[in-house]
Structures are given as C-alpha cells and as structure tokens.
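Field log, afternoon session.

UNIT: design team B
ACTIVITY: writing a sequence onto a fixed backbone
BACKBONE:
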C-alpha cells in the first residue's frame, strides 16, 4: 500500500522481488493511479482506505496477510491490525509510525494538491528534483526520471502531471484540533507479536529516530532498520532495505 500522493508503481521493483517468495497484491487507494477518483473528496481519509482494503481482501477471499505500507499505507496497516484482529501476520512500516513529526507533515501539506503541469518528462523530473532534493540528495537525473515516472502521468493533452486527484488534499485543510489529537500508539500495539519491520529513512522528517527506537522496543518481534542517505520515504529499492525485507519475509508464517 503506497503513500499519500503515490500509487502502485512505487513497488515496480520490490513487488516482483517479493513475488519470488510470496503471493503479492499491490493496491492503489482511491484517487490514485488507475483507481477511480472519489465523488466525495472527504472520503480521502485513512478509515475509508481501511474499509476499501477490507472489501478488497474479502472479495479475494484473503483471510490472512502480511502488509507492506509506505507512509499512509503504513497507517492503514496499523488501523487494519486494530480493526481486524488476527488477520495480519506481519507488517512492514516504511517510514511511518504512530508518532509523526509536525515539520514533515507541514511540508507535505504545502505541496499536496498544488502544482501544474510540465511539457516533457525532463522538465517534470527537474521540477520534482527541486521539490524533493533534500529527500534523495544522492539522486542524479536518471534517478529523478525513474521516480517521476512512478509519480506522474501523461495527459491526453500531452502534459505531465502528478498521478492523483488533487482533491486528496481536501481533508488536510479541515481544522481538526492539531495533529496530536489522535493517539495511534494503541493501533501500533495492536500489531502484537507478529514480525514487524520498521524501515526509517535516516534523513526522515516524518519519523524521528527516537520514535523509531520506541517502536522497535515496544513490540517483541519489531526490528528497526535505517536506510542511509534518504528521507521520507525509502523507495525500498535500496540495498539495505532489500536485505531487511528478505529477512522479514523469512520470519513470516509459512502460510
């Protein structure tokens, strides 16, 4: 399950790798990629995504699963654990947790739903690089083109735009009393004693090193791995991430 402004293409490399070991299903949340846009933008909230994922699992008759969630996808994983007891047998939380940093959330709010279009992929990649240079400081133009093609699409008019409904930002504009108003630690604890891999970008402004350590210490089978040189969020194509993922998969139940 991908992040807030992302889609299934985030997993174009790691999903086939995982599929050599397990059945893999890559879900796109409503309003992203190939999924339909919501008629009501106020349904672009985590609890709705949880309901959508449960409906998908029930349709596919999947009774038990391990979740891989980047950012928003990880929040959905925790809420699934809290609302579907016993259904999740493993969880990979990619640069997300029950405690998120305000500076990083403010940064995301500033760009979600904004921006226009670009005439070519190179223009789009350069614009995306300017916005995210601090997240992937070692990227060259080839890396930026690769990630831009994961996050953008070509319109019928021949312009390059972000590949999500701009209205996903609508719920973020609604005053809710502050980000500290919802305690997600109980949802994290609901993961219990299943294998949990906490991936954290070493430069992350969303998950602090302190919060990540707390997550690793709280659950008996939680393991923290920091991916060097990247912020929010690791692409999971990094060598350190891939090694950690393979170890996590080996710890999952056989079936």
């Amino acid at each position: 399950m991908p992040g807030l402004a992302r889609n299934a293409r985030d997993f174009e490399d790691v999903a086939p790798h995982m599929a050599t070991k397990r059945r893999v299903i890559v879900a796109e949340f409503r309003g992203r990629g190939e999924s339909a846009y919501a008629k009501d933008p106020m349904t672009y909230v985590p609890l709705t995504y949880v309901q959508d994922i449960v409906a998908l699992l029930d349709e596919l008759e999947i009774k038990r699963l391990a979740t891989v969630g980047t950012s928003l996808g990880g929040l959905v994983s925790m809420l699934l654990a809290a609302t579907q007891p016993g259904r999740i047998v493993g969880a990979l939380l990619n640069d997300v947790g029950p405690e998120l940093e305000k500076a990083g959330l403010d940064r995301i709010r500033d760009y979600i739903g904004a921006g226009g279009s670009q005439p070519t992929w190179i223009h789009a990649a350069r614009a995306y690089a300017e916005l995210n240079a601090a997240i992937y400081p070692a990227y060259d133009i080839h890396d930026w083109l690769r990630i831009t093609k994961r996050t953008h699409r070509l319109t019928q008019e021949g312009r390059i735009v972000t590949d999500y409904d701009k209205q996903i930002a609508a719920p973020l504009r609604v005053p809710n009393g502050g980000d500290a108003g919802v305690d997600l630690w109980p949802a994290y604890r609901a993961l219990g004693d299943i294998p949990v891999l906490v991936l954290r970008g070493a430069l992350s402004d969303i998950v602090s090193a302190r919060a990540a350590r707390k997550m690793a210490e709280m659950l008996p089978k939680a393991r923290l791995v920091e991916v060097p040189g990247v912020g929010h969020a690791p692409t999971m194509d990094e060598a350190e991430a891939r090694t950690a993922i393979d170890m996590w998969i080996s710890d999952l139940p056989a079936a």
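LOG NOTE: The two ends are 21 Å apart (CA to CA).
NEXT ACTIVITY: expression trials, pending approval
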